[in-house]
Structure formats: structure tokens, C-alpha cells
Amino acid sequence: MTINPAKSYFTILASKKFSHIPSIKIEGNNIKFTKHLKYLGVVFDSKLIWNHHLNSIEDKINSLQHKLYRISRTTWELNPTVKKEIHTEVTEKIISYGHEIWYQDKIRQNIKILKLQRSGLLNITKCYKSVSTDALQVLAGIPPLDLKLKFSSIIFKLKIGSQPYTLQNSVIQPQSFNHKKPMIPPWTKAAFSWNYFNNSNITAGTLIYTDGSKMNNRVGGAFVAYDKGKEIFSHGFRLSDHETVFSAERMAIEAAIDFVINNNIQISSIISDSRSVLQAIDNPNNLDNNIIKIKDKISCYNPLRGASSLDVYGSHDPGVTQ
């Protein structure tokens, strides 16, 4: 990779005023300093206020709206449905590009965003310019863009695990979201089939029953192990109130697998009544990190143990499992 110093610029990100501008050189050539630097379509300023980025977006939106006005007049125009689709798929996409980085939910910023949205709403509804933005949003059937950006930014922050978010006295934890892995090669995908359990299926080995539940807004799970009809071990655990029954069932199965591996149990069978978790384990395209972790533990245990086996079963329905 080569860098062209003549086309290169640098800026300084600082909350306070800096006393002097440093000198940066590449191959003996000075790099120019600029207060606003555009990188991957986002305009950065030294204080990260993002006003210049919104101003650059405004120029694009105004140019786009003028072109749309040419082909959509009061007496002859595009179908309103087409104009609405152009607005949602083009105009709003231009405004919201990179908002996970620059959106800060500030009053002035929201006013600017609604101003950018307003021009498109006027073109869709053909109302007078004196009509309020709220009324235009209702008439066009398009929600406020600032609220859409706020919602999307919250989801983004939760997914990357940066911080929890409080919504109406309820704290949403980042752990509530699935953090998926990138696409994995097809030859590394794994699926573990399961069948329905009945007493005649299994004649030897350790039986482990798992369960997860949510009652009175409390979530927890447990498993109990039997060997030759006698209880040999049981374990229960409590989860955060925001967790789901699916998470409790999944963690109960994972805890049972850990019990089998840690105690070097040669032949074992895990019985669960959570069909959703079992189907997730059986799905080779499931990219949930927690499900992949369960698959990895099963695959690492079974092939390396020779005659040992760890099977998973579903309960409540007749059939045979493996």
C-alpha cells in the first residue's frame, strides 16, 4: 500500500482547544491539517459535535429533493407510494448512514434530523409548508426519524456489549442479545440430531434431566443426574430477571454437559423438554455463540472418548432418540 502525501490530511480529536498543531511528515512531505476530515462517508470534527457532518448531509438531501420536485408536481407526479419508498429507502438511508457513530440524541441534532426529513415528507403529502412536521409524519405514515435513529443506536450499543440501557424503569442488559459469529465455512458446521425419549430407549448409563423456567419474573434452571435409578447429583442456578426461558433451558443443558465432561462419565444421556433449544442444536446454520459452544463441547467429547457417548433427548413425545 502506498500513501500519496499530497492527498492526505489529518485532524486532531480533542474536547479542549489545543495549543499548537503538530507537524506530521510522510517521506519528507508535510501532511496538511484540517478541522474537518471525511472518512468513509462520515465527517469528523475535532470536538466530535458532528455539525459539519449533518451540514454535508443537508447538501445531499437538498440536491436529491430538487431532482424529485422536477418529476413530481401537484397536477402530475409520481405515485405517492413510489415517493414514499424513495424517501424511506434513499433519503432516510442517506441521513442515517453511520448514525451508530455520530448520533448523540441531542436537541439541536434531533431538530436538524427532523428538518432533513421534513423536505421529503412535504414532497410525499403535497401539503402546505405551514403544516407541522408531526402532522406530516402522520399523514405520510412515516415515524419520526430521530426516534428511529435513537432506537437503532440503542440496539447497536447493546449488541456490541458497551453498556446497559434503562427503559421505563427496566434495565436492558447487553447479554440479552445474541452476538452472532461471522459466517463459518460449511465443512466446519455441526448438527447433533435428537429423538424423543421413552423409558425403553435407554438401558445403561447416566440419565440427566434438565429444565428451565420463569415464574413471578424470576428465571432459573436446574438439572438432576441419575445412575441406576438413584440420584447422584443435582444442581440449580438463578439467572437475571431479564433472561428468557430459552436461555435458562440452554444453560441447563450446557451445565449438564459440563457435569458429564468434568466427571468423565462414559455413557450418558441428557433429557430436555425444550424443543426450541434442541432444534437450535440440530440446526447446522445456527450462529448463536452459546449454541455453537454447546456443539463444540459435544463434538470434542464424543469422538475422543472411544466407547463413551453423550446423547441428547427430547421428552413428552413418543419416539426413539440418539
From TrEMBL:
It comes from Caerostris darwini. GO terms for molecular function: nucleic acid binding. This is RNase H type-1 domain-containing protein. It comes from the Eukaryota. InterPro entries: RNaseH-like_sf (IPR012337), RNaseH_sf (IPR036397).
